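--- STAGE predict ---
source: upstream dedup step, 1 unique chain passed
mode: sequence only
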Amino acid sequence: MANLAPRPDRAYHQDYICRIRYENSLPPPPGSVKLLDIPIDGLDYYASPGFASRLHRSQPINIEANAELGMPIDLVGMPGVFDGDESSIQAPLLPPPVHPRDKTLLRPLSELGKPKYQPGGISFLRRTEYISSDAARARSEAAPKTTPKAAATKVRKPVDTSKDDPIHVLRAVVKGFDIAHPEDAYDGPDTHDSIRGLEPTPAEIEAWNNPKHPTKSTLKAIDFYPVLPDLEAGTDTGSYMVAKFTANPTQIINKHDPRMDVGLLRPIELDDAAVADYSARVAAHMADPVHNLHPGGPPFNYHFFLPTDAHSAVNLKRKLDVDDLDRDDPDLYTTKNKDGKTIFRLSQQRVYETGRSTAPDADNAYNEIALALHDPDVGEPVDGGVSNRLEKAAYYYPVMQKVQLKPHRSKTLTQLGVAPRADDQGVDVIDVLDVVVENLDAVESAKRQKHRAELLGESVEEDGAEDGDA
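--- STAGE serialize ---
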């Protein structure tokens, strides 16, 4: 039997490599800890409320603080708080943008002191590093080095610059209309008014006949709507403004209030100080757009009016509906004024102020649009019947400005009886508003006709517009 003698112990040298992740380089505090000299007379003495009160009086706070320590906690006057609506005390829907110089302070912890090598998801591990001897390093340096083969040079595909030609782009646009309406496709020579579209490929025709969702192949198209402008629904400016309330403007919270469909916002004229401040902010933005954000639209305050009941709201909505054949019926009015004239009476709900708003841009009003699907064969007809003014289509309406409205603080205090019943501009608050719906006059019709002609590409007669303005 072989004799197994113990092997002599051998020492292996290995370097331990570590990295300090957290290090406090701040000096120790210059002063000692403040100790309070409290006599020990029993636990009941320290547990009594009087001890805490006396301690508070003997050790006053060395900072200036108000009764609420800088955080308002008085919920009186906050709209909807006691009704279960806490939107008025929550954070804003859109937080303000972070200043570029503050983005460095918001870097995540993984980017602070980031090493050159980071193992996958484990911050405290490090790649194994072997320390070779001098002889091994000399042998590796003496070995011939193989040079890798040079990478094959990638040959770029030549770019067809003819596709950027305006005529080619126009032909590509016309091709889309030819695919949708092949019976109207133009195949003659190019003229000033007509141009031939590109030849559609079989794949493009198949994609139009059998559309597929780009990401969800199981979905199937059930109907098609052509996208068209509603030429008869224009405004004086040719676009619309979207107003969003930060809190529910009515007391109805479990269902839709039909009075909101015909609510009326009456702007209050800005005073000279507000106009000067807004003009200065706009001028600062124009001078330095990088450091000065655009202030948005003018900071108007608004009187908000609603009909007195749901029946008046339905009749007013029918009166404003141009598709209602009985909209000229005088019996739709629900109230008479002191002169005996039939009217719609709207009562004021609250004064609102502009919270946030986008800058009105009439030149780029079509950057954002509202889309409404209309099908005359779907849905129940309203009382009196519906005219055939619109065909089946998806009608778009340009949005020039978006405004967020929040309750005006002085108005809230007025309702509680704390502030006088008048707005900031010294104008008496309007309690009710008598509304009468009438047809457009010559000036309003001329403005709408101008915007309609721009959509249709028609020329506008300036003389006719001037006569209408006169």
